[in-house]
Amino acid sequence: MKPLTLENTKVGIVGTGLMAVAHARALKWNGIHVAGILGSSYEKTRLKARELEIPHAYQSFEQLLNDDQIDVIHLTTPNHLHYPHAKAALLAGKHVACEKPLTLTAAESRELMCLGREKNLVTGVNFNFRTSAMIQKALEIVRNGEIGEAFIIHGSYLQDWLLYPTDWNWRLDPEAGGQLRTVGDIGSHWLDLVSYVSGLRIQEVFADFKTFHNKRYQPIEGGKQQEINIDSEDYAAILIHFEKGVQGVLSISQLCAGHKNRLFFEINGSKASIAWNAEQADQLWLGHRDQENRILVNPGQKKLSSEERKKTSQESFNELYRRFYAYLVAGDYHQKPDFPTFEDGYYGMLVSEAIEQSAHEKTWKRVKLEELDRFNL
Ligand SMILES: NC(=O)c1ccc[n+]([C@@H]2O[C@H](COP(=O)([O-])OP(=O)(O)OC[C@H]3O[C@@H](n4cnc5c(N)ncnc54)[C@H](O)[C@@H]3O)[C@@H](O)[C@H]2O)c1
What single string gives the DSSP state of each residue in 209-264? Predict the structure, then answer.
């Protein structure tokens, strides 16, 4: 295998949707060469290749896999494809950057994590909020002990794009999106982010789910709609026990009119509180009892409209892949990576599985953290 440099590393992207564009832009921003792309049809692939100025349009996943010039594969497809494609890519000796949630089950994530380690390949999972500038600042503040010992971690992740029963997306099909819908799609980000910032793992959860739209309407050919029964969660309320006796609570839904991408968390500690809202990503709130509260502002913030600000997280993608490729070309894969990996994807899936079990059994469920300890994570 050739020694990888930023100049000679070549990437193939799978998927042609929203995330394919975000990944392609982040790679371009980092000067990484995207050599080819693959979509669900050759027509779509060719159009996206032209739009994103990617030289090659693949006709099949096998063609991409067998392309010896490709070193890294980015997976930006619906959730059910992550596991088979990541597994095949690792077996073919390719490094893999995969969208979240990593897989549909914890067992699949564990298998991918082990395979990546066994093959000494770099794996990344796209928990991109971690690399937002003000999240990095929050991490520094928490690690410096400025908020003291954490007591409570709470928040929500709210969006509105599934508000109406006529809103349809592959995420509503459990075969493509997984049994957990809202928790897997956006809860996964929140759960990862608060564990990352606080440095605390989730030990136990108690989840309460609600489906408000038991029927939704999927567009089909001829401008018609097909009625589909839905039983995945429109709303999840989750009580959380973190390590060190820290208490948490989270609300998640994609039926919250007015909220485009409101990931919000607050950590209340023995000295101060800290809070962040993804819709105002360039700000970090610090709460004090005996002095004025402060809002820290990202010195690198761009002049964006408030609508753009709600949608954009491109900078966090740019930074995540800057880190991923710096690590890849440095070549020592025994060093601890400074970006989220398949290990983090596996932790996320263990938490998700406990949430799913809790919601069904209506009882507290332990996260199987001993599984992580077995791998010294
Ligand atoms: N990190 C984030 O902030 C974030 C945000 C949105 C989505 N995601 C994740 O990214 C993934 C994709 O989501 P999206 O919003 O881009 O979805 P999307 O529907 O916009 O795009 C999915 C793409 O995959 C393509 N596709 C489907 N089957 C395929 C196949 N067999 N081979 C190749 N391509 C195929 C579709 O044509 C489509 O272009 C999901 O796992 C989702 O959870 C992450």
Answer: EE-S-SEEEEEEGGGEEEEEE--S-SEEEEEEEEGGG-EEEEEEES--TT-SSEEE
Cα 105 to averaged position of ligand 1 atoms, centre (Å) = 18
Using DSSP, state whether 276 is helix, strand or coil: strand
The CB of 105 under 6 Å from ligand 1? The reply is: no
The Cα–Cα gap between 130 and 376 comes to 22
List all residues 6 or more positions away from 17 whose beta carbon is below 8 Å from its beta carbon.
Answer: 76
Model pLDDT for residues 338-355, shown as the tens digit of each residue = 999 999 999 999 999 999
Q: What are phi and psi of 155, to 5 degrees?
A: 165, -165
User: Residues 6 or more apart from 314 whose CB is under 8 A from it?
Assistant: 22, 25, 26
CB 372 within 8 Å of CB 341: no
Spatial separation of the C-alpha atoms in residues 57 and 144, rounded to whole Å:
48
H helices of the chain, in order, are 18-29, 42-52, 61-65, 82-91, 106-118, 133-143, 174-177, 182, 188-198, 306-311, 314-330, 342-361, 369-374
Report how far Cα 343 is from the mean position of its chain's Cα atoms.
13
pTM score:
0.96
Total residues belonging to the chain: 377
Give the mutation target among 13, 19, 173, 315 for probing the ligand 1 site: most ligand atoms within 8 A of CB.
19
- Ligand 1 centre distance from Cα of residue 141 (Å): 34
Q: What is the pLDDT confidence band of residue 300, given thresholds at 50, 70 and 90?
A: confident
Q: Is 71 helix (H, G, I), strand (E, B) or coil?
A: coil
Nearest to 97 by CA among 286, 337, 361, 315: 337
| Binding site membership of 39 for ligand 1 (Cβ less than 6 Å) | yes
List, in order of start, the domains of the chain with CATH numbers: 10-129+318-340 (3.40.50.720), 133-310 (3.30.360.10)
- For residue 253, give both structure tokens: 């839904």
> Mean pLDDT of all residues in the chain?
96
